[in-house]
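Example record

One chain of 252 residues, shown exactly as stored in the release files.
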Amino acid sequence: MSANLKNMVKVFERPKSLTDARFTYCPGCHHGIITRIIGNAMDELDIADRTVGIAPVGCSVFAYLWYKADSQQAAHGRASAVATGIKRARPDLIVFSYQGDGDFASIGTAESIHAANRGEDITVIFVNNQIYGMTGGEMAPTTLIDQKTATTPEGRDASLCGYPIRFSEMIAQLDAPAYVTRQALFDTKHIMKTTQAVKKAFQYQVEGKGYSLVEILATCPTNWRMSPVQSNTHVAETVTKVFPLGDLIDRG
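Predicted structure tokens for this chain:
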């Protein structure tokens, strides 16, 4: 073994809060990074033994296999409602929902808005990849204008389908939420910012500060018909113009 190899220092290892089960995400998809970030937050805050994750119907449907924490499956769009029920029944637990744009901002619009408006003491991870990923690449509420999907093969037309919904901005108009932020994962710098945001959202729940929403701009190379590299560039150069990054509310 060379001297260089002997002197190498391990700077990353699998979060202890993750199981050894392999992810089922497509190559280049950001869900795997987000799942790891949540595991890191559990490790750093030492909360895995009292955390409950709520997974929706979507690409994260098997999340209960990946965390060394309790998990609950929710009907499509109902994760915020299920998280609310668990947190109210067991306020000592740390409860988070993991939801896509179709789940959180379309099918579950009512549950999402009212949980935020009540200031439920939960953490919501909102993965915005501007498309329905698992079901075949249909248009989502966040799909960009002119973006081609399975249900808008010629591109989203605002006159027919309306405009992309900036859901975090809607939530940020409410009085109750403690923390609302939008982050991204297209390069190392932004992965670090997202990591900090997710940890802060969980920390606020540990401290009983109320509702937190972390929106994460993510890729879907399979349904976008792009390579992972092209997908990252698309988020950085196009998606962020429609969905600006940064904190919208921080009442911590």
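Notes: The beta strands are 51-55, 70-73, 94-100, 123-128, 179-184, 212-217, 246-250.
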